[in-house]
Predict the structure.
Amino acid sequence: MTSTTEITPTRPVTPSTSSQDRFLRRTNLTHLFWGTIGVLGFLTLWELVARLHLLPRDALPPASTTLARAAELLTDPAFLTQIGYTLWAALVGYAIALVIAVPLGLLLGLSNRLYAATSTIVELVRPLPPIGLVPLLVLVAGQGLEMKSAVVALGCVFPLLVNTIHGVHSTNGVARATARSFGWSPALVAYRVVWPSAVPSVLTGVRVTVSIALILCIGAEFIGGSTTGLGSWLLLQSMLPQGIDSVCAGVIIAGLLGLLINAIVSVLETKYASWARRDEG
Amino acid sequence: MTTTLSSTTVSRWSNAALGWTAAAVLLLVWQLGAVSARSPYFPPPIDIFGNVYDRWFSAGLSHGILTDSFYSDILPSIGRLLVGLAIAWIVGITLGVLLGRIPVLAMTIEPLLHFMRGLPGPVLLPLALVLVGTGSAMRIGLITFGAIWPVLFNTYSAVRQVPEGFEDAARSTRISRTGMLFRVILPSASTGIFAGIKVSTSLGIILLIASELYAASDGIGFGLSQAQRSFEFLTMWSYIVALSILGYLSNLLLVRIEHSLLDWHRLRMAIDN
């Protein structure tokens, strides 16, 4: 080493792990302070852009008008019913996807032969974007709940399946062999050893697919020409002469809905899979 | 990490053979079932593949195989997807790095970003129709808006988790700022970024089709909605097959790129284990 310059480290070099997150040192209060500034800044900018007519197509309502309309909508039973239709269809489709994907994923993950036999089919069918099936499904299943749920189920079943299989495959082989050597039945090993170690991966699948479920359900309503749900409500409003306020307000509410759903899933994940993350780190 | 699959070449080949045989059997069952059931909704696969060939690949060698309808049905969609995704990736990675390096900026706009990420993309379609119009720009914008979040959030969290030791080590060599970005931070965050890119591609395809099914004049989604209006099930299935191939190929391409770009990373992981 023939270094001519003297190196003085600006701070002591500490051994650091990748899970050490330097952002977490800041307090919640600091986060809240800057976050509030960010939101208020955005709303002010929006208000100015709309009031000073800075956009080429002068149609964007100001933030104040939109938020007032959103507050109105949130107390309007007719609007809330439409949201209920969307959530119900998404939930039914999602439940179908879960009931199919998780047991099937366990089975395919546990049996190498079954996995080999089905993997090509799964790889060929999986990339098909479910929204492309909407026109066909409309003709087969109509424009209502059945069609929407089918689109959601088709879109969510493959990511969930793949994540479950991945979870099963990542089970520690020694743990499985040990449990077997205790004389446990394969079913007991699956229940007590394989399933717990697959849970984090399944929950990752859930986190990714929950927001896709909402996207697909609203997209299906919109494209499939449903008469119920948030998507069709938005479409209807966009055709009314003064409907743009309602459309903007509806978009804000849809965003909050997505935020709420993501928050619920991450709470679930911390509750049931935090041990795994600590393990990986 | 122990996988229970045995990794000898022989069993890998026999597994692949088993997989393709199962796929072939499934197609055969579908063929026989469709021929005997004569359901208008589910035509036999041979008819579908014949229709795909006639529609897009039957121009003959002298005309470059691809037919005119390939250029009006498929290419506009691929173009929109590529442009929309490229913008989403560039903006997403840039913003993600900025947020990961400047805590104050991150704290300021994080609530907004979480809101935007939670926003289901198709919801914006009516708004975009009114504010932007029905041209290609609206569709590309929608793809970009939907595809940006997975890239942004993955980059952000990957950049945050670059070990400080790496930076300190690099700083001790008096590395320049650009050197730090391109030789330390981005490579270290690259696996996270790539995971985001993969998710964003499938979201991009969903939004592409969603936007083309509505008020379009060309593209896969447009062809699909035209076929639906005239109850041409065979044509609809051709477009569905085209979509499936588009999804399959884009995934294949990304996996290839990831392998060649991140080969060193897999090597390192192998050494770590």
Summary: Chain A touches chain B through 94 residues (CB under 8 Å). Residues 61-280 of chain A form a domain with the MetI-like fold fold (CATH 1.10.3720.10). Residues 54 and 152 of chain A are 39 Å apart (CA to CA). Chain A has two domains: 27-59, 61-280.
